[in-house]
Give the backbone structure.
Amino acid sequence: MSLIDQDLALNGGPKVREKPWPGWPMHDEREAKAVQAVLESHTWGTRGPKVQELEAKFSAFHDAEFGVAVTSGTTALEVTFRACGIGAGDEVILPPYTFIATASSIVAVNAIPVFADIDPDTYCLDPAAAEAAITPQTKAIAAVHMGGCPAEMGRLRDLARKHGLRLIEDAAQAHGAAWDGTRIGALGDAGAFSFQNSKNMSAGEGGMVLTNDREVYERAWSYHHCGRVPDGAWYDHRILGSNLRMTEWQAAILLVQLERVEEHMAIREENAAHLNERLAREVDGLVGTAESPGTTRNAYHLWMGKYDAGAFGGVSRDKFLSAMAAEGIPIGRGYNPLYREGAFRDAWDASHCPWACRLYQGSVDYARVSCPACEHVCDVGGVWIYQSALLGPREDMDDIVAAALKVREHAEQLRD
C-alpha cells in the first residue's frame, strides 16, 4: 500500500516525509575563515574594508551604482525613506501583505502608511489599487517584491512618474531577482534589502540600501553614519543622523554568502518549476502564484501558492496546512493584513504624530481599511513554502506533491 493510500499522519498514519529538509543558513569553512580574518585584523566595525567591499560588490551585482550597508532590513527601509525625503505630513502607499517593517519604518520617519490592495495572482501591490489610493498628501509608493518575485515595476514606475512620486523598493526577500533584464533594488529611487537569518543571503542580521541617485546615496550614507559626510572630517556632523553601521563580521560573512546567490537561485528556480508543473498537472486546488509582467528572475525566497478549499472537499486552508505539516512538509499560511495588526488597528493614536502632525491634512482609521484580495490570501487562500526547502534535490518537491495528494485523498478525515 502506498503512503498516499494510508491514513493521514494527523490520524496516526505514516508521514510522507521523515528526513530533514536542508538547514539554513548554509555555511562552510569559508565563513569561518572570513570571521577569523576579521578577528585577527583588529578592525571590527566603523565602516571597515569588508563593509566597503560588500557595498561595492552587492550594488554591482544588483546593477546599482551605490550601496550603504546598515544594521538590518528594517533600518535599511527607514534610511531609504529618510534619504528619499519622506517625512511629516507625507503619505506612502504600500501593500498590506508584507512584513510589518515596511509600514513601521514609514511611521518611524513620521509619515503615514496608506494600504492598497494586492494583485490576487502575484501577491504584490496592485498598480490600479495604488493609483486609486493617491491623494494630494501622497509622496511615495513602496513596492514590495513579495517572496522574491518582482512587483509590477513597469506600471508602478509609470504611475510614480505621472504623479511625481518617489518609488521605493522593499527588496528584503528578493536578493538577485530581476525585472526586464535588470536586477531589482535600484529600479525606482532606492531599495532596501535584509540579511536577517531567514533571508536568501544571511549574516543573522544586516541590511543594504541601493540607489542610482547620488543625492539619495549621500543622504543615506550620512544618516547611517552619525550625520557625517563622505570625505568629511570625523567630527564633522552635517545632519542629525544615527549609528546604523554594519560591522565587519557581518560584511565578511555576507561576502561569502554573495558567492552562493547565483547557485542557490538556479536550484530554487529549477525546483519551483518542477513543483509548479507537477501541481498544475496532478493536484487540483493547489497552484503556484503568477509572476508580475516583465519578471526576468524570481528569487524564490518563498514558494507562494493559492489553495482552493473546494478542490479539497471543502477542507479549510488552515486544516490543510496542519495536515501537510503533520506529513513533514515545511508549509505555512503567511502574513496577516497589516492593518489588522494591533500596532495599526488598536495601538495607533490619532492624537499623536504622525497622524496628528499639523502638516498632515488627512485622516486615518485602520479599523475601517479593507483590501479584499489581501484578506482572501491571508484568511483562506494563501500558502508558503520556505526558501531553504527549495534547495534540496528534485525528489523533495515530489514529497510536497505526494503530501498534497495524500491530504486530498483523505479529505474526509479533516472535515468537522
